Amino acid sequence: MHWLLGTFILMLVTVQTAGIHNDSHVILGKNAISPLVFAHYMLITRPPNGDYTNDINLARSAGIDAFAINYGGWNVDFAQQEGYLQDFYSAAEYHNFKVFLSIDCTSVKDSNMVVKLVNRYVNSPAQFKINGKLVLSTFQTDPPTWNWQTDVLNRINSPVYFIPGTLSDHASQVFSQTPGDGFFPWIHPTKTADQEAITDNSYATLRDITGKSWMAAVAPWFFKRFSGYDNWSHAQDDAIFIDRWLHLLRLKPDFIEIVTWNDWGESSYVGPADTTNSSPESYWGTLDHSAFLRMTRIFIKAYKARQTDIKITPADEDVFFFYRLQPATTLGTSDTLPLPSDVQYLKDNVFLVSFLASEASITLNSGGVIHYISGKEGIHKNGVPWTLGEQSLMAQRNGQLFVNKKGPNISSQLNRYNGNVIVL
After folding, report:
1. Exposure check for the chain: N or C terminus, fewer CB within 10 A?
2. Integer Cα distance of 114 and 109 in angstroms
3. Residue 330: per-residue pLDDT
4. Residues 6 or more apart from 251 whose CB is under 8 A from it?
């Protein structure tokens, strides 16, 4: 779409939707534990040279308490995974960091394997525990064939704090299940942000009633395009991250798990992108998400302080922007796959997120069209319809420039469709 050069003045507004605004849960469950934050780490996607040092240091500096290690995955070599897991635990021990297993039940089909793995690291100094109990979690779309209590938990050489994953949006059914010290609903792939917020409210209510823990999931983005089956975007679009964090700060989950640290294939990473894969199919290698982690650090600090209204300090001030590099409904010149599912929910916008200690003037240059935005104190998000071409962002106060960023161009068409985002 061609835009004439012009000037637009926009007022930045606080993120709110109908489902997010109407909540009243501000207490923790009966088993109140200090708020904890984890990051879901795909063991199958190994860091450069198998060195976990950088990931551990970045996670620690962001306020993340432990990595939830996803054991399993697509076309996984379990013998290889065991070696990766040993390296990960060794690195965590060396760096005095904590980890725990999250069994990927979409690929792990043997309960004996689970028992063997967990027992191997029961006494590791890196093993994360809650109230003296070893933490064990899962990712699962459907329950496994085994009985968790008799086939797994009773055979582990330690008390276990068990937090199984689920895709169910029926909190009453989930919280009535046994075993489970708490439950971990993943981001629901077909729900809008308002629908997800309603589900969160129900989990908060059942947490308060039952006294069991609720571990909420937060994702920065989702997009996957591997095949006709794995070809999807996400209905929550820009609301999946900032809106959700603000909502969860009010609901106060017992734990929050960031999903994910490094699932590049689903574009949900907050850790360093894999730049080693330069193939045309790689839709993540050049799209940095580290600014999502910088935002996460501010949210984690507020969450652990049990704040609902975040006061931004001068040290935390920044203005970020993120966007796709192409229109939502335009296939690439070399595409062999159709458009991803749920593209009808995606907006062709540049999204700005400001973390301001006081008012400031924000300027977005989108393809030569200048947008002046009145930046208000606090955290605010705004979507500006983009213009193709160069993208840049500045923020100033009292004539002093304190943000000056330039991102890659937005094109009318790429070689291959890419629904991932750059965030700066």
Report:
1. N
2. 9
3. 97
4. 23, 25, 26, 200, 201, 204, 216
User: Going by DSSP bridges, is the β-strand pair 231-232/224-225 parallel, antiparallel, or unpaired?
Assistant: antiparallel
Give CA–CA dist 293/297, Å, rounded: 6
Beta strand pairing status for 160-163 and 133-139?
parallel
Residues 78, 81: Cα–Cα separation, whole Å: 5
The pLDDT score that the predictor gives to residue 33 is 85
Integer Cα distance of 89 and 81 in angstroms:
12
Q: Quick one: pLDDT at residue 336?
A: 92
Q: Which of 279, 166, 184, 265 is nearest to 222 (CA)?
A: 265
Containing H/E element for 7? strand 7-11
Task: Show the DSSP H helices in 254-391 as ranges.
Answer: 290-304
- Contacts for 40 with CB less than 8 Å, ≥ 6 apart: 67, 68, 70, 102, 139, 257, 258, 259, 260, 261, 263
SS3 of residue 343 by DSSP? helix
Q: ∠ CA 34-297-345 to the nearest 5 degrees? A: 105
CA atoms within 13 A on the CB side of 64: 31
Closest by Cα among 67, 139, 80, 78 to 112: 78
β-pair partners for 385: 349
Mean pLDDT, 10 residues at a time, the chain of 424 residues: 36 35 43 88 93 98 98 92 97 98 96 98 98 96 92 98 95 93 92 94 96 97 90 95 97 98 96 78 90 98 95 96 98 94 96 98 98 97 98 97 98 96 98
Nearest to 397 by CA among 321, 322, 319: 319
Q: How many helices (H) and strands (E) does the chain have?
A: 8, 21
Cα separations (Å) of 316 from 242, 261, 301, 312, 358?
16, 22, 11, 6, 12
* Spatial separation of the C-alpha atoms in residues 101 and 213, rounded to whole Å: 18
The confidence score (pLDDT) of residue 22 equals: 41
What's the rounded Cα separation, in Å, for the pair 13 and 200?
23
Q: Using alpha carbons only, give the angle 118, 120, 126 rounded to the nearest 5 degrees.
A: 80
